[in-house]
């Protein structure tokens, strides 16, 4: 009996102590930006849709069922970019870093879906999958305070030449500097990260083949894309296999 | 045994096909050698080295780690088949685990082997040679080439090379002590004197020594067929019992393995029922096993034991079997030999009687003068007899040695007298040279005296001096006068009475008494040219002048009384077992304190109350002197009763075989028994005892083989220092284990919480191994250097059944209190690291699946930032490092609190044990190297940690220290309370 009481008190005390120290520790943190950001100095690249199994797309362009999931994922992903959701976003000056350090309420820049052209899902509801020109959206990971230098743009290449023709929206895969820096979830609630749509026009003689594509961020000296260990730092590789 | 002792020489020649004059032919000898094998004892069967090594690798926790390794390989196989991205992690983990087992196994084996090697070099003998007649020529042969039928010649100082039937002897005496325990040399002749071959005088036994004289004999037994050989093989038949510490460690291994397996299985079931994949659950199971098993502990224990063994070797206790170190500490009864162990093993003059008065002599080991009154002219006369009537001589070339250390040729009594005279008078040899010897009759058993006639050193005195010594009553018979204060007085009945009283008193002290008398032969009847003839005895041998008595004893070593009283306060019963006479045994027992001054035996009480022995209440007698003859007729119950009822026991006139019975009797009382022994016949008792202690100087090889420990200086006091070390190491091992077990909880909790709360893994399996086999090793060895908290020689020996090495309190306190505190401290650091990088604790719960998904490279943190898989992994390794560092920091506190179990650290002294600080610095140093030095080696999963994270756990470390101080304070304040019972380990 006594021993149970002892442990009740003992563990009660430890739990209280744990809670207290955690509370003290959390008090030292800001709710706006994390204390340290050195572990993510350079952003990773990611694509959407993101297949469940590693980054490999398998679909039959004549079988709507085979790419239905990709399409719905894209649709869902682009929902937040819908004009109706961007009513309070402002039009910023393109090509310039949008510094808002002195402003209490950080504004988000508008990203028009139309910039994604054929991949916006407006004209082609299947994002090109039914035509054998599938769209893949490439985005750069959000990192608070990141200010890319130069003219960052996405460039994709297939490992084997001539298997696929690549189109970018916006043109040349440009990522506009006006979307930077990011101020964090709580200060920058409506922030939308810029997207680059990559449309793959797969050559008809390359169907049934697995096409390996690697996209990189280029043109910016402070965005890394050649890290040995991190295969997603400033680049992303995926495979596409389309049948007819 | 055969009846060779009954046969005549010619019958023997016929039986063995040999000839007394010519010996065997070389060809025949070679044939027999081929048939019988060499004349050497088969060494006890040694376990093959490879088996020993393998045993180290499957014993203890190794099995658990092997299981872990096999599971790792299985999951590697499965993952490989499934084509997962990084299956090799598990392959490496399995390899690492296997390596850990193999390396710690090799390490333990090496430690064992090192201590065994000391023994091996120790027992290596100088090859013996024997003088043999073969092909009618005398040859020197190695003793192991002897065969049955060989004719061997033996002279004083030789070891008897085989069992030999003697056919010619001249003044031959053998020392059978290694066989029978009897320390008196026994004479040998060619006569068949006893039916029992062991008692008859015409057989000399293998491994005994010829003390003096010469002999020739026929070899009748060789090698293992000799009497000694048969006893030795008997001893190897007595099984080796498990040592107490081995039992304790086994108990501890079971306990920890039990905890590991049950937690492992419970969480395997939990994780399976939480819909984890079987493969993942299997990997969790490996982690739990690795976290639970203190990989480095058994190696640490071995090192601690061998450190103590080294320390003991310096104090003259050479430990053959490492575990015996602790056994000595738990000893509750020591059965000690008398001769050589409690005593100095040399006759020394203890008392003198002249001028109607008894004088005591100094019997200490390093005497240089004698303090008794030497002014009386009677002493001058007596000293002259002592000097002259003595055949013993110093071996030449020892002038620089202290007198007591010099080697003497001669028997024990004469040696004692020679050294006694040398101490008082100086150069005895030159005195003898100045008083030239003209005739001599050596001592023989019919006369019981020794006589010699000398010229005197005074050139004006032309008389001869006849000096005689011998059995006092025989000497007195030959005297008509007695010297009092230098004057001859008639020996009347009153003076004879005084002699009797003195003789009885000295004899009653267990001393060997010799009488001395002299006579100046009248110059007229015995001119310088007088032809003395010792055969016809043409000189007076009666009406001599009695001068005095000298009594000798083998005195106790000067350090022994102290050691015995230490044993007493340590609750250890000391039992003397000797082949000597009860009176001598009792006298020595009294003088060293085995029988205390106030206690009485049944016989003493009977004598005091003047009633028959039967009427004495046996319970009143605390002491007992048991004769070997009585012991022979005793039932086991009677023996148990004696061992139980008397606290002070002396067994006298016992044979080495009876020693085994006594040891078994003590073990029936539940005691841990230490036994000393030197003879071959002691080996069964040495084996049977919980710890057999062989004498390093006097001990036979068989005894040393059977023993667990060798006493290099043959001194009883060394055993007591050994006991002290043994007790200390037991206490310190407790501390080491408590220290080691604590952090296992801090290693285990991460896995459990990882499984249940699905947070990112707080600590990796490899990281755990770095704690167990890296930072923690030196500190846990350092605890072996901790000084005792109180006088460990003032408490009773530990109770084998109750005082466990790892008791419930130790496990509970380490696991459920300090271990949990450490875990809390480490988790605070872990959460701090994640929170400051952007993952608040609330975000971390339940993220495991996504967190570990290689395809998710935009994992969102609490601030909306997105992380690639590698960035998350790097953060996870930072978490490992932080968790590791926190455990290390808190282990420093754990190390400090484990220095004592009851006393405050400040009583014990924070800086007294310097090795602890070496441990602390090594611990922190290794952690620094791992984090900053090897932080860039990805495979090790360490990262260079932000400096402030080293201090997050410091408050918890301080809390651990404060909490433990409070615990100890309450234990000291309220002994016997609920707190004491539950919190003292």
From TrEMBL, chain A:
Give the transmembrane region(s): 6-26
Which Gene3D superfamilies does the annotation name?
A: 1.20.5.170, Na, k-atpase alpha subunit (2.60.40.1660)
Topology in the lipid bilayer is annotated as: Single-pass type II membrane protein
Q: Which InterPro entries match?
A: Na/K_ATPase_sub_beta, Na/K_ATPase_sub_beta_sf
Q: Which UniProt keyword terms apply here?
A: Cell membrane, Disulfide bond, Glycoprotein, Ion transport, Membrane, Potassium, Potassium transport, Signal-anchor, Sodium, Sodium transport, Sodium/potassium transport, Transmembrane, Transmembrane helix, Transport
Q: What is its main location?
A: membrane
Domain of life, source organism: Eukaryota
Family, as annotated: Belongs to the X(+)/potassium ATPases subunit beta family.
Which organism is this entry from?
Answer: Pelecanus crispus (Dalmatian pelican)
Instruction: Output the PANTHER family linked to this UniProt entry.
Output: SODIUM/POTASSIUM-DEPENDENT ATPASE BETA SUBUNIT (PTHR11523), SODIUM_POTASSIUM-TRANSPORTING ATPASE SUBUNIT BETA-3 (PTHR11523:SF47)
Q: Name one GO cellular component term.
A: sodium:potassium-exchanging ATPase complex
Q: One of this protein's GO BP terms? A: intracellular sodium ion homeostasis
Q: Name one GO molecular function term.
A: ATPase activator activity
Spell out the PROSITE patterns in the cross-references.
ATPASE_NA_K_BETA_2
Q: What is this protein called?
A: Sodium/potassium-transporting ATPase subunit beta
Subcellular locations according to the entry = Cell membrane; Membrane
TrEMBL record, chain B:
Query: Would you kindly state one Gene Ontology biological process term found in this protein's UniProt entry?
Result: potassium ion import across plasma membrane
PANTHER family noted in UniProt: POTASSIUM-TRANSPORTING ATPASE ALPHA CHAIN 2 (PTHR43294:SF1), SODIUM/POTASSIUM-TRANSPORTING ATPASE SUBUNIT ALPHA (PTHR43294)
Q: What superkingdom does the record give?
A: Eukaryota
- What is the protein name stated in its UniProt record? Sodium/potassium-transporting ATPase subunit alpha
Protein source organism: Pelecanus crispus (Dalmatian pelican)
* Similarity-based family: Belongs to the cation transport ATPase (P-type) (TC 3.A.3) family. Type IIC subfamily.
Q: Which SMART domains match?
A: Cation_ATPase_N
Its keywords, alphabetically, are: ATP-binding, Hydrogen ion transport, Ion transport, Magnesium, Membrane, Metal-binding, Nucleotide-binding, Phosphoprotein, Potassium, Potassium transport, Translocase, Transmembrane, Transmembrane helix, Transport
Q: Give TM segment ranges.
A: 58-79, 91-110, 252-276, 282-305, 737-757, 763-785, 810-833, 877-896, 916-935, 947-963
**Membrane topology type:** Multi-pass membrane protein
The Cation-transporting P-type ATPase N-terminal domain is annotated at 3-77
């Amino acid at each position: 009996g006594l021993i149970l009481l002892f442990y009740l008190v003992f563990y009660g005390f430890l739990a209280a102590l744990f809670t207290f120290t955690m509370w003290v520790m959390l008090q030292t943190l800001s709710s706006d930006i994390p204390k340290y950001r050195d572990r993510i100095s350079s952003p990773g690249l990611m694509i959407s849709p993101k297949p469940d199994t590693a980054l490999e797309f398998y679909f039959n362009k004549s079988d709507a069922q085979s790419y239905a999931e990709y399409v719905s994922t894209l649709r869902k992903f682009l929902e937040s970019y819908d004009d109706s959701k961007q009513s309070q976003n402002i039009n910023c000056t393109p090509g310039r870093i949008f510094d808002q350090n002195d402003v209490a309420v950080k504004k988000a820049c508008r990203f028009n879906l139309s910039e994604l052209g054929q991949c916006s899902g407006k004209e082609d509801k299947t994002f090109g999958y039914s035509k054998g020109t599938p769209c893949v959206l490439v985005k750069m990971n959000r990192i608070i305070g990141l200010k890319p230098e130069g003219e960052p743009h996405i460039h994709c290449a297939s490992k084997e030449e001539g298997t696929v023709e690549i189109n970018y929206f916006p043109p040349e895969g440009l990522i506009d500097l006006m979307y930077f820096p990011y101020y964090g979830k709580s200060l920058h609630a409506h922030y939308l990260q810029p997207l680059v749509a990559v449309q793959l026009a797969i050559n008809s003689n390359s169907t049934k083949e697995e096409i390996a594509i690697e996209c990189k961020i280029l043109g910016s000296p402070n965005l890394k894309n050649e890290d040995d260990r991190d295969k997603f730092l400033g680049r992303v590789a995926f495979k596409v296999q389309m049948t007819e | 045994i055969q009846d060779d002792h009954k046969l005549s020489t010619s019958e023997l020649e016929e039986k063995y096909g040999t000839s007394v004059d010519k010996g065997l032919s070389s060809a025949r000898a070679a044939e027999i050698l081929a048939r019988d094998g060499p004349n050497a004892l088969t060494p006890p069967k040694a376990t093959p080295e490879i088996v020993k090594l393998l045993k180290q690798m499957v014993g203890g926790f190794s099995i658990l780690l092997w299981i872990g390794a096999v599971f790792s390989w299985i999951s590697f196989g499965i993952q490989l088949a499934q084509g997962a991205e990084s299956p090799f992690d598990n392959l490496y983990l399995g390899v690492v685990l296997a390596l850990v087992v193999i390396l710690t196994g090799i390490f333990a084996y090496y430690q064992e082997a090192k201590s065994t090697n000391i023994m091996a070099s120790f027992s290596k003998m100088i090859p013996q040679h024997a003088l043999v007649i073969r092909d009618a020529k005398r040859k020197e042969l190695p003793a192991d080439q002897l065969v049955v039928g060989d004719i061997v010649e033996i002279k004083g100082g030789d070891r008897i090379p085989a069992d030999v039937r003697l056919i010619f002897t001249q003044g031959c005496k053998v020392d059978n002590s290694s066989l029978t325990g009897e320390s008196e040399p026994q004479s040998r002749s060619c006569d068949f004197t006893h039916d029992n071959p062991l008692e008859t005088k015409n057989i000399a036994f293998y491994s005994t020594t010829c003390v003096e004289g010469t002999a020739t004999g026929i070899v009748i037994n060789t090698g293992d067929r000799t009497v000694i050989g048969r006893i030795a093989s008997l001893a190897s038949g007595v099984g080796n019992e498990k040592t107490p510490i081995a039992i304790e460690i086994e108990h501890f291994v079971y306990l920890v393995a039990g905890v590991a397996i049950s937690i492992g299985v419970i969480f395997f079931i939990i994780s399976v029922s939480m819909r984890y994949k079987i493969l993942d659950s299997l990997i969790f199971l490996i982690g739990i096993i690795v976290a639970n098993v203190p990989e480095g502990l058994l190696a640490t224990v071995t090192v601690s034991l061998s450190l103590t063994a080294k320390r003991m070797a310096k104090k003259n206790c050479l430990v053959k079997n490492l575990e015996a170190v602790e056994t000595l500490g738990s000893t509750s009864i020591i059965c000690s030999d008398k001769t050589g162990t409690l005593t100095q093993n040399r006759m020394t003059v203890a008392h003198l009687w002249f001028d109607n008065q008894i004088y005591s002599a100094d019997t200490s080991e390093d005497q240089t003068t004698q303090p008794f009154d030497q002014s009386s002219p009677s002493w001058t006369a007596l000293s002259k007899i002592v000097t002259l009537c003595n055949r013993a001589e110093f071996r030449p070339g020892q002038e620089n040695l202290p007198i007591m250390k010099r080697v003497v040729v001669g028997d024990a009594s004469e040696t004692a007298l020679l050294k006694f005279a040398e101490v008082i008078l100086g150069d005895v040899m030159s005195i003898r040279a100045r008083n030239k010897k003209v005739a001599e009759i050596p001592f023989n058993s019919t006369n019981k005296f020794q006589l010699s006639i000398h010229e005197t050193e005074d050139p004006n005195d032309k008389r001869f001096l006849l000096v005689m010594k011998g059995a006092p009553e025989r000497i007195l018979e030959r005297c008509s006068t007695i010297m009092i204060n230098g004057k001859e007085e008639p020996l009347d009945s009153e003076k004879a009475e005084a002699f009797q009283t003195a003789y009885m008193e000295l004899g009653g002290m267990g001393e060997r008494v010799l009488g001395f008398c002299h006579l100046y032969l009248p110059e007229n009847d015995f001119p310088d040219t007088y032809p003395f003839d010792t055969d016809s005895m043409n000189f007076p041998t009666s009406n001599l002048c009695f001068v005095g008595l000298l009594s000798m004893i083998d005195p106790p070593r000067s350090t022994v009384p102290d050691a015995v009283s230490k044993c007493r306060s340590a609750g250890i019963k000391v039992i003397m077992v000797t082949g000597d006479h009860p009176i001598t045994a009792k006298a020595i027992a009294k003088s060293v304190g085995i029988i205390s001054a106030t206690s009485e035996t049944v016989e003493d009480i009977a004598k005091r109350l003047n009633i028959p022995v039967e009427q004495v209440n046996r319970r009143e007698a605390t002491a007992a002197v048991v004769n070997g003859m009585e012991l022979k007729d005793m039932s086991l119950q009677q023996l148990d009763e004696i061992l139980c009822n008397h606290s002070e026991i002396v067994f006298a006139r016992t044979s080495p075989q009876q020693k085994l019975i006594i040891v078994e009797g003590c073990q029936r009382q539940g005691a841990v028994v230490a036994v000393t022994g030197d003879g071959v016949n002691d080996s069964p008792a040495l084996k049977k005892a919980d710890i057999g202690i062989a004498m390093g100087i006097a001990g036979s090889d068989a005894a040393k083989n059977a023993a667990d420990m060798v006493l290099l200086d043959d001194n009883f006091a060394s055993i007591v220092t050994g006991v002290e070390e043994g007790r200390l190491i037991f206490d310190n091992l407790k501390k080491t284990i408590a220290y080691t077990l604590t952090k296992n909880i801090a290693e285990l909790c991460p896995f459990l919480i990882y499984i249940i709360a699905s947070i990112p893994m707080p600590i990796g399996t490899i990281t755990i191994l770095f704690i167990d086999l890296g930072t923690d090793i030196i500190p846990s060895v350092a605890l072996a250097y901790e000084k005792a908290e109180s006088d460990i020689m003032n408490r009773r020996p530990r109770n084998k059944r109750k005082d466990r090495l790892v008791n419930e309190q130790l496990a509970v306190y380490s696991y459920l209190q300090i271990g949990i505190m450490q875990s809390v401290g480490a988790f605070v650091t872990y959460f701090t690291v994640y929170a400051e990088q952007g993952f608040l604790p609330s975000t971390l719960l339940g993220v495991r699946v996504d967190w570990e998904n290689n395809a998710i490279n935009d994992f969102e943190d609490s601030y909306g930032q997105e992380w690639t898989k590698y960035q998350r992994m790097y953060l996870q390794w930072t978490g490992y490092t932080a968790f590791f560092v926190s455990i290390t920091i808190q282990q420093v506190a754990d190390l400090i609190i484990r220095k004592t179990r009851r006393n405050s650290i400040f009583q014990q002294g924070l800086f007294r044990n310097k090795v602890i600080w070496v441990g602390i610095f090594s611990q922190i140093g290794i952690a620094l190297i791992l984090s900053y030095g090897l932080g860039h080696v990805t495979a090790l999963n360490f990262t260079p940690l932000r400096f402030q994270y080293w201090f997050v756990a410091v408050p918890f470390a301080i809390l651990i220290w404060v909490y433990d101080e409070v615990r100890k304070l309450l234990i000291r304040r309220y002994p016997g309370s609920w707190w004491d019972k539950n919190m003292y380990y």
